[in-house]
Amino acid sequence: MAEIIIPRGAFELHLRDLPPVSGANTLKVDERLESAMATVMSRGDNAALAARIHDAFGIVLPSGPQRVSNGVEAFIGVGPGVWLAVFEKAGPQRASKLAASLAGLASVADQTSAYAVLRITGEAAREVLSRGAFIDFDPSVFGPGSAAVTTISHIGVSIWRIDDAPTFEVALFRSYADSFWHWLTTTCTALGVGLVRHGGSARI
Amino acid sequence: MRIPCPYCGERDGAEFTYCGDASPVRPAADAGEAAFVDYVYMRSNPAGEISEHWYHGQGCRNWLIVKRNTRTHVISAAMLAKGSAP
Ligand SMILES: [Zn+2]
Q1: What is the DSSP string of chain B?
Q2: Confidence (pTM)
Q3: A151/B15 Cβ within 8 A
């Protein structure tokens, strides 16, 4: 009987076929498997919620579509009064601990494993993403810390920029991973951009 | 068409769902049948500026009130419907 392999990563079956070394005009991609994620919806008092989050994490909760990180945790604005909380290490009950610490101020829903998060690094990242999302990725308006909820190839995505490499992360419902991968590889082929697996340890 | 979402910024019209005239105000529950027929069916269809509901379902997932000119399609304002309802 054939061995049945069910990978944990939504992109794993694609990523494992990529070459490990980067050459000219390549994008490094990899999936974030170790992080936990939850939606945080304010129950109305955004100022009190921001104060509680600042006390707990030292993070200034963004009021717009931005990502603010303390190196271990990050809050990403995805709508008025709604944030995605991303924790570098999943750990047991991460979302319920967050819910308890924000009790009365926000509703928290665990999204770990609901979203797949693909990290994309390289010079060509902006051009590739620009082929899919109809938003402006120019560094003057979408620098590190910028975030957007939009679509790529009809797939709902949340995109945020991490650093100057530039590194972007794209979060999407994991069942769309194959369709997103199809868009990504088709677009990279059209632009003459190669894909390699990120490899190195994850930075935030 | 691009719609300037007050949260997300300017976005492609395909991210939004149109939901008609934003100006009708729901009558009181005891206002009677005629008032409800008016509310549900009667529209003024102006040639000029109109307030409309648009839902940013592929973005911040909020309802907007968008002021659009039906002659020119120029959008002069967009605000979150929450808190802006007449
Ligand atoms: Zn929006």
Answers
A1: -EEEETTTEEEEGGG-EEEEES---PPPTTS-HHHHHHHHH-----SSEEEEEEE-TTTT--EEEEEEETTT--EEEEEESTTT--
A2: 0.91
A3: yes
